[in-house]
Write a structure and sequence with these properties.
The protein is an alpha/beta fold. The chain contains 14 helices and 23 strands. Helices cover about 30% and strands about 20% of the residues. The strands form six sheets. The chain has a seven-stranded mixed beta sheet, with helices on one face. Strands 12-11-13-10-14-15 form a six-stranded parallel beta sheet, with helices on both faces.
Length: about 450
């Protein structure tokens, strides 16, 4: 309650700061670089990232005045960089945001590969496909350990290609009789580009509603990723466009109450409005925990006569993470001696571990946050449990659960509270009758 962001507790890293060689960012999703602005000042070590990530971070910093800028060392896709005793190579992989990378980390005791977030997509909307050739070469070199994405480890087959989504999007735009709105993850620049191209082919203009989405569009445009795309219009243009000639990109695919989509659904947006017969397409999946908020928006739209299309009806979304056949392919390319599962809940990581064993990996290890593992020399082994936890950001304050008062806030939200004000004179006698204020308490019991 009242918390704006949840951040990792990096107390252990602060203690070991002299041994921290650098921070290497694989891509610009919030769960991979979102805490940098708040936590980097506690570490002050070099940060490495590609241009897209660096520009997005700078744009994010500009929207939060007062935060210290984070200096970034720019890395080119495919580049090898020396960081302390390590050599780190950025390997291009397909994902749902441009310039995503796996990392090949060379150490004196062996080669470690971290997959980052990835999938095998032969036709990504922006950038090259996953670099299969380079990954196979690493397998020939010999991989000591692979840390690999587990997000879709329960799902058989291959993740859908962005090219399939682009075709479904174009068909929906052609079919729509009136306005059509798309909501997707703001960071999915490839999806935004596919929507824009389909809109242009159908003779429609594209309006952008949402600061986060506009920020990504501006960065992608600056880097030449949207070359040939039609112009993206601001909200002010919306009122002047015919219903059948507009596509509107709406932030808020996860039901965020202050985002453009929620405000449109509540008929509270100052510039964007939808009418019966218009259409809204959810070109995103629901992150677990957000289903109630998303369903509320869907119901609000439907009650107003607006058609809602989701991934359950049409192929309007593709995951950025590998399914089981793609995981098997990665293990066939790299042939690691050790497999450690990351990026997922225990259910996903256990399924991934079973798959890795079936793929012939000699040592498969399940770990939790805080598990310290020795990869080499000798057999892979858990050697310690480190303190881990969460920090909470409330406005400009960052602290643990006690410092921010989260537990007390939640208790108050269930129990309410009573304040009794007693005014006494110098002798300790009551001057007036006590005043009682009840918040969240039944008037009578």
């Amino acid at each position: 309650p009242g918390v704006d962001l949840v951040l990792p507790d990096i107390g252990y890293l602060e203690q070991e700061r002299t041994n921290l060689a650098g921070i290497v960012i694989t891509h610009a999703h919030e769960d991979h670089f979102g805490a940098l602005l708040d936590l980097w000042p506690r570490l002050r070590v070099p940060v490495y990232a590609t241009a897209f990530t660096a520009l997005l971070l700078a744009a994010k910093a500009a929207s939060e005045p007062g935060l210290e800028p984070v200096p970034i060392t720019l890395v080119r896709p495919g580049q090898r960089i020396a960081i302390g005793p390590f050599e780190v190579e950025y390997i291009e992989v397909a994902h749902s945001i441009p310039q995503s990378h796996a990392l090949a980390i060379r150490t004196p005791l062996g080669l470690v590969v971290h997959s980052g977030d990835w999938k095998i997509d032969p036709s990504p909307a922006i950038g090259p496909p996953t670099d299969a050739k380079r990954l196979q070469e690493l397998g020939e070199e010999g991989v000591l350990a692979l840390f690999c994405d587990s997000t879709n480890a329960l799902r058989e087959g291959h993740s859908r290609s962005e090219a399939d989504v682009a075709r479904a999007v174009a068909q929906l735009i052609d079919e729509a009789p009136g306005r059509i709105g798309f909501t997707t993850f703001a960071s999915n620049a490839g999806r935004v580009l596919s929507i824009a191209r389909a809109a242009a082919a159908a003779g429609r203009d594209v309006v952008v509603a949402g600061r986060a989405m506009r920020r990504v569009i501006d960065v992608a445009t600056e880097l030449g990723m949207f070359e040939g795309a039609p112009p993206f219009l601001d909200e002010e243009a919306y009122a002047h466009l015919p219903r059948e000639k507009v596509v509107v990109l709406l932030s808020g695919s996860q039901g965020e109450p202050r985002a453009a989509l929620s405000r449109v659904a509540r008929e509270e947006h100052p510039r964007i409005a939808l009418s019966p017969g218009d259409m809204v397409v959810f070109s995103a999946r629901a992150i677990p925990g957000n289903e109630i908020a998303i369903n509320a928006i869907v119901n609000q739209l439907i009650m107003r006569g607006i058609t809602v299309i989701t991934d359950e009806e049409r192929s309007v979304h593709a995951s950025g993470h590998p399914r089981r056949d793609e995981l098997r392919q990665m293990y066939a390319w790299l042939r690691p001696r050790i497999a450690i599962q990351v990026h997922g809940e225990a259910l996903h990581m256990a399924a991934h571990a079973r798959l890795a064993r079936a793929a012939g990996v000699p040592s498969v290890m399940m770990i939790e946050d805080g598990t310290m593992v020795r990869l080499a020399p000798g057999d892979v082994e858990k050697i310690d449990d480190l303190p881990v936890g969460r920090l909470y950001k409330d406005g400009r304050l960052v602290g643990d659960v006690d410092a921010i008062g989260v537990i007390q806030r939640r208790r108050l939200s269930f129990s309410g509270h009573i304040v009794v004000s007693v005014v006494l004179d110098e002798r300790g006698d009551a001057i007036i009758d006590p005043e009682i204020v009840m918040t969240g308490i039944p008037v009578e019991d």
